[in-house]
Fold this sequence. Notes:
alpha+beta
Amino acid sequence: MKRQFSFIQSIHIKIPMLFIFILLIAFQFIGVFFIDQLQSQAVTTFKETWNTQSSFLINNVRPLLEPTDNNSQSASNIESQLSQILATFTTEEATRIYILNTQGYVLATNQSGLINTIGQRTENENALSVATTRQAYAQELHDYVRNNRMYILIRPIMSQDNSQFLGIVSIEASMNPIYNQTNSVMLVFLQSAVIAIIVAFVIALLLSQALTHPIAEIRRQAMRISDGVYNYPASVYGQDELGDLAFTVNELAVKVKESQESIEAERQRLDGILRHMTDGVIGTDRRGNVLLVNERAVELLNLKQQDALGISILSLLGIKENYSIKDLLVGDNEVLINRPDGTILKGEIAIIRRDTGFVTGLVCVLTDITEQEKTEQERREFVSNVSHELRTPLTSVKSYSEALIDGAWKDNQIAPQFLDVIQSETNRMIRMIGNLLDLSKIDGGQIKPQMELIDFKRIVAHILDRFVFTLENGESEKKYTIHRDFTNREIYLEIDQDRMTQVIDNIMNNAIKYSPDGGEIFVKIEETENVVILSIQDEGLGIPQKDIPHLFERFYRVDKARSRDQGGTGLGLAISKEVVELHGGRIWVESEENKGSTFFVELPYANFDLDLDDDEGWD
């Protein structure tokens, strides 16, 4: 189809217009710069000239105004001599010069029409200001009503030694001749620019005709190619870029003919690719009826391929209640599909359009995002738990702090209790943040166990001795008894002593915390050929079976209220699990409600006694 365009839209006109536009911009910048510099220089020269002439005038009138002891002249004689000096002072007709005495009275002027002002006090505030400050005044004024520009120069007349103020010289010089001269230059510049633009337009018009004729021939060839006619190559008019373009278009016609012959084979290969993609792919017609379903989509939707073809994509995906075909055709959409089996699918729906914008169908790519959603849900829960856990102690600190500010600090009984609560909640927040940092470092792989070959029984015994010492010194709120059952064999393990001590401390603290007063705690170490198992048993309330799978999750608590009252952060067991797994071991719990819980820590173990016995090189 041949497109019609107006003459003004033709490239034959656009090229000359481009040349004119470039010239206009060039003339604009050059003209502005040139006229501005010319005008600025003329104004500067004008002002410098008047400054020089004013100095010359001051030197001529100074002797008349200076008082002398030998000869005192009359005022009329001084005014007469001043008038003669101004009469010989060559100026333009538009320039007015006044000579004033120290009180601001006019002594002489160069304008015959202003003779009546002699002897009168001037009303020029600037002149009176110069009489007061004895500082020169210069300013350019523009009368917009009369379009008149004036340069005002007022200078004090000082004695030869600059010690006595004698009078004032006031000059009002017209600047219109300077600006008129600048305007004349600008007019000449504009006339030259118009002539240059006309000449450039004619030359550009001739050049564009030489360019547009080969382009028109190439356009005709492109239209023949679009109509499926490939046997009439475009004419090549020269060896320049346009000739090369015409040659390329002729080659394109040949290649388009060859490519059309292979389109069907390519389409078949594309169908094969779609059917074997790792993501599910569903193709529909413009009404949303399914035309193509690959094997992965059939697998994700758990149905047979023949059952999917021909039905609406809304029914196939189970989104008929929330979407219509019109909704999907408005634009690209992304839908989440919750399958009955718990699988979560993400469907990215795109519209297939022709170049004309006509919709020919839809393509839906299905991706299994069950694990991603699970991870995202865990992240949201983690952030929520962190916010909640930090809010609780912060609320307590804020409440007790406000109570102290309101005057509770004056009560000797209440104030220490409030301060203890604030310190306790602050310590809990510090522990929680420290635990969070440890978990973050473990998740990021920043913590590497500092492995040492250590006597495991000695480490455990040292930890238990510390708890016993706390009990015997009365530092523990509860009474408890620790029973030890260690294997007789020497147990040496490659472990990070500080990290493993943190794990055992955490389990022991929990055992004491949740055991009744006077309870018993049983600590046992046993070993096999390749593992060592540390078990810690308490006589607490126990853990419900439904909570055991979640016990090592971050911020998980069986009894949230009681755990917070006892200062727990909900992160200790999570950190213990991460540390044990860093050592290549595992941790688990066995519990029975109202009877107690037993925590097990299993660590890899190499029996060095067996290694020594098997090594024939040792004496």
